[in-house]
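Annotated sample (chain length 109).
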Amino acid sequence: MKRDLAGRIPLLRTSLSSIDLPLIAAVAALPAVALAAHLPSAVLLPALAAFAFAAAAISAALGWLSGTPRPAATVTIWDFAGACVLLGAAAGAFSQSGQVSQLLGLATP
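Output written by the structure step:
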């Protein structure tokens, strides 16, 4: 069992890297579809950006905890995290400040 840098806490090793990535993408897309169905279009882009960054953080944490190697010949959880970051950055770049303030409840529509 491999230990962390301090040598005290053993790292968790799982077979997370063998999870089928299209299944992960489909499961991650379900909340995004729910966001699109229940939010007004004025706040959809900032909400999608926040969701994509949260999905990226969760998948990167899972990749780090599972010990999945970043340079791999196949698609890994790290690639999914990177795709979520790109999606969140694009949605955040196209959203406007008024939309963000509406999402946070600081302004009225």
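Annotation: The radius of gyration is 17 Å.
Annotation: The chain has one domain: 21-103.
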